[in-house]
Write a structure and sequence with these properties.
Layout: E1 2-6, H1 10-21, E2 25-29, E3 41-44, H2 46-53, H3 58-64, E4 66-67, E5 72-75, E6 80-83, H4 86-93, E7 96-100, H5 101-109, E8 117-118, E9 123-126, E10 131-134, E11 137-140, E12 143-146, H6 153-158, E13 166-177, E14 186-189, E15 193-199, E16 205-212, H7 221-227, H8 235-241, E17 248-254, E18 262-263, E19 266-268, H9 271-274, H10 283-300, H11 303-329, H12 337-346, H13 352-363
Parallel strand pairs: 1-2, 1-12, 2-8, 5-14, 12-19
Antiparallel strand pairs: 3-7, 4-7, 5-6, 9-10, 10-11, 13-16, 13-17, 14-15, 15-16, 18-19
Helix pairs in contact: 1-5, 1-10, 2-3, 2-10, 10-11
């Protein structure tokens, strides 16, 4: 049995590992000239690690990048809005991990035969019969997996009339700073903007910022420093130590809910199927779940029955998490002073049980 995987990012490589371990012939088509990742850090939550455990890859990540759950949310002056019980979260759900995205991609890539990886290959059309037209010719397979991101060529081929990704109204900056001691992973909310910092295992700090902005707008590091200059420490210091060349900016998109993740011999996974806002940190974790679930379903049953089972299981779950992610981040982007004042007064009063409800189903997933 052969699978062609369109896209060599985290979701695509995880699928490649899963199918290779089950004895399938694997071909991974990646548009970029190399299988690598230029991003900054990534936090893997317990459910994502359980998905990697099925491939024997969870333990190396836990040993190399152990991390605490998020400490909580602050407002711009430093007052806590939500303070998490870190030890309680770990006892209840398991370990968190923070690594560089490139380290995760390298781990996955090393578990796939080198001859299966075809970089510099742009996919032009995917057909439901398992045929893929690309810049290197044509490939055919028993199964095609579209793991080619939010602007997926696979999805456009199969559902050309379905609305494409929509801009959610804010842009995102990500970068790493030199080593610096921190108290933990914290996100801070202002009016229409927020800033997060996450300690990395090597002492560096993974930082991200989000702000309401017109689509396509670009902001240099000096402007970011001005924007957050009066926020609580260590935010101004982290921005001061950042390198302009290391700051990545991307507009934030999500997908409208698709009516199906499968068609013929083709399945979508990850952002190609359910691109979501980053507010719950579940994008990569859901791609990992997708990949191992798809390989299990198709290999255990058959391609047709396995694809139906995959769609039946994964579509409701991922679309629910995408909706919760959208809702979780919305208050951070309110601009109205009365609304943000109400938010800042109300959040510290909310019961922890209510706050954890949005993530409990995500964290407790098992293969």
């Amino acid at each position: 049995m052969k699978v062609v995987i369109v896209g060599g990012g985290i979701g695509g490589l995880t699928a490649a590992v899963a199918f290779h371990q089950r004895g399938w012939q694997v071909e991974v088509l990646e548009r970029a000239p190399a299988f690598t990742e230029i991003g900054a850090g990534i936090s893997l939550q317990p459910n994502g690690l359980r998905a990697l455990d099925t491939l024997g890859l969870g333990t190396p990540l836990r040993s190399g990048g152990p991390a605490d759950p998020p400490a909580g949310i602050r407002c711009a002056n430093g007052r806590w809005l939500i303070r998490n019980d870190i030890d309680g979260l770990k006892r209840r759900f398991g370990q968190w991990v923070t690594v560089h995205r490139a380290a995760l991609v390298d781990l996955l890539r090393a578990a796939v035969p080198a001859q299966a990886l075809r970089a510099g290959t742009e996919v032009r059309e995917v057909r439901t019969d398992g045929t893929v037209r690309h810049s290197g010719g044509t490939s055919s397979a028993d199964l095609v997996v579209g793991a080619d991101g939010v602007h997926s060529a696979t999805r456009r081929s199969l559902w050309p009339h379905i609305p494409g990704p929509r801009y959610v109204g804010y842009t995102t900056w990500r970068f790493l700073t030199p080593p610096q001691p921190l108290e933990g992973s914290v996100e801070t909310w202002g009016r229409g903007e927020r800033f997060g910092h996450v300690p990395m295992p090597d002492g560096r700090v993974y930082c991200y910022a989000l702000a309401n902005a017109p689509i396509g707008s670009r902001t240099h590091l000096d402007r970011l420093r001005e924007r957050f200059a009066h926020w609580h420490g260590p935010i101004p210091g982290l921005l001061h130590r950042a390198d302009e060349e290391a700051v990545l900016q991307h507009d934030t998109y999500e997908l409208p809910e698709l009516p199906a993740y499968v068609a013929g011999k083709v399945a979508l996974l990850g952002d190609a199927a359910h691109a979501m806002t980053p507010n719950l940190g579940q994008g990569a974790c859901q791609a990992l779940e997708d990949a191992v679930t798809l390989a299990e379903a198709v290999d255990t049953l058959n391609v047709g029955a396995g694809l139906r089972a995959y769609d039946r299981v994964r579509r409701p779950r991922t679309q629910t998490i995408a909706r919760r992610s959208r809702q979780a981040g919305a208050p951070a982007h309110w601009r109205s002073p009365p609304l943000t004042a109400l938010r800042d007064a109300a959040l510290p009063l909310l019961p922890r049980a209510l706050l954890s409800r949005a993530v409990t189903d995500a964290y407790t997933w098992t293969p």
